[in-house]
Structures are given as structure tokens and as C-alpha cells.
Design a protein that fits this description.
With 112 residues, the protein is mainly α. The protein has four helices and two strands. The protein starts with 8 loop residues before the first helix and ends in an 11-residue tail after the last helix.
């Protein structure tokens, strides 16, 4: 998925130190140019944003203008236009590959 939680205690400690080093409320972004996203990566990041929204709110009835901010696999903060993404994805369901429809988080998605 587009979000990657720390796998070990060492990674969790490193992430906590990185967040603490920036001070309260500041965001530490990786240095260098932002990598290009493939369609597959963009889908995974948006799917992760949908999962985070559903976990927080309890449903995927997202307002069309809602923007969800998540940390992508490369450590950068991504603003996902989640409301627009869900609306578009629902409309494109007949054209989506089967693996996207059956992705781990999509069973909770209302397709119609």
C-alpha cells in the first residue's frame, strides 16, 4: 500500500526521533526532488488515504471536496483529493482492472 508503518522497533524509534527533531507541529520532508509517481503508486497512496479516512470516520461517504493528507511510502506528505478520487473511481469501476476492485481496502467501498 502507499503507507508504510515502521516494521521494527528501531524504525519506529528513528521515525519518532525524526518527528521530534523538527519540533511540535513541524513536518520533516525528505530532501531531494519529489519522485515521479506511477499510476499504481498513486492508486495505492489514494487507497491508503481512503483506509485512513474510513478508520477515522467509520465510512467512505467522503464529501467531494475533501482532501486527506497522508505520509506516502517515501516519507513525503501527500495531499490526496480523496472525495474527487472516490467519485472518479466509482464512475470508472467498469474499466478498472479486477485487482484494483478486489484490493484489500476496497470491499468497504460503496461502488454505486
Amino acid at each position: 500500500m502507499g503507507l508504510t508503518p515502521p516494521k521494527t522497533a528501531e524504525q519506529a524509534d528513528a521515525a519518532q526521533r525524526a518527528c521530534g527533531a523538527a519540533g511540535a507541529g513541524e513536518v520533516v520532508e525528505p530532501e531531494g526532488p519529489k519522485p515521479k509517481r506511477t499510476r499504481e503508486l498513486a492508486f495505492e497512496i489514494a487507497l491508503g488515504a481512503a483506509a485512513a479516512y474510513r478508520e477515522r470516520v467509520g465510512h467512505l461517504e467522503v464529501p467531494c471536496g475533501h482532501v486527506e493528507t497522508v505520509v506516502a511510502f517515501d516519507g513525503r506528505h501527500e495531499e490526496v483529493r480523496l472525495g474527487a478520487w472516490i467519485t472518479t473511481t466509482r464512475g470508472r469501476r467498469p474499466k478498472l482492472p479486477a485487482e484494483r476492485i478486489t484490493a484489500p481496502d476496497t470491499p468497504h467501498m460503496r461502488w454505486t
